[in-house]
Amino acid sequence: MRFLNIVLLTVISFSGMANNNDFESVTVGLKISKPSDWQFVSAQENLENLKRVEHGSPEFKKLMLKHTTAPLVAMAKYAEPFDDLNPSIKVNLKPLGSLDGNNPSQILNLILPQFKKSFQGFKLVQKPVETKIAGLKASYMRLNYSLSIPDGRSFPTTSELWIVPRGDFFFMIGSGTRQDEATGTRKEIKEILNTLVLSK
């Protein structure tokens, strides 16, 4: 499970402050803004949301809950509880370790097999491709799957992931929306990402 923490979007804890619609962490040099009708998600709320999701086997879910730590910042379109798939975006920070910061697509390719094993109806819509986020070299991929919850329902979900290396660390940005965008659009996610500022 070498890449379990990467798959689960874990993060080293750094201080940050949310003020109205803006989040800033001076420690890691990150600023991002949410739309006024979106909500910041606390670490506890994030954990509770993870508990409600069925991730493949019970063993995988147990490991996920054991090793997951709070994202640097997380936001969702609707206040919880929300009786559908709540569009969300999270930013996490991880040390590169032995990973190649010059090849962010390689990092996404390393975690793809775990996604395939963990999610029902998995389909890779966009393989890892180079892009730029906040002016920095990055990689992006998009995948579809069925997200199940304990009451037996499942939601056709699209996840978008970005890897943004910086120094000895990399940012991992993840978003989730319904495939049909009925509760929120990927355009909204893009507009939030456009507010992201990372110190170089």
Word description of this protein:
- The chain is about 25% helix and about 40% strand.
- It is α+β, with helices and mostly antiparallel strands and about 200 residues long.
- The strands form 2 sheets. It has a 7-stranded antiparallel beta sheet, with helices on both faces.
- It is globular.
Task: Please render the helix and strand layout as text.
Blueprint: H1 4-7, E1 17-19, E2 22-25, E3 30-33, E4 39-40, H2 43-51, H3 58-67, E5 73-76, E6 88-95, H4 104-118, E7 120-133, E8 136-148, E9 154-166, E10 169-178, H5 186-193, E11 197-198
Antiparallel strand pairs: 1-2, 2-3, 3-11, 4-5, 5-6, 6-10, 7-8, 8-9, 9-10
Features:
200 residues; alpha+beta; seven-stranded antiparallel sheet; four-stranded antiparallel sheet; 5 helices
The gist of it:
The chain is an alpha+beta fold. 23% of the residues lie in helices and 38% in strands.
- Strand content range: 35-45%
How many β-strand runs? 11
Number of discrete helical segments:
5
The secondary-structure element order is: HEEEEHHEEHEEEEHE
Unreliable residue runs? 1-15, 63-67
Largest sheet: 7 strands, antiparallel
Q: What structural class do you assign from the helix and strand content?
A: alpha+beta
Mean pLDDT: 83
What would you call the shape?
A: globular
* Rg measurement, Å: 16 Å
> What is the spatial order of strands in the main beta sheet?
4-5-6-10-9-8-7
Distance between the termini: 31 Å
Range of helix content: 10-25%
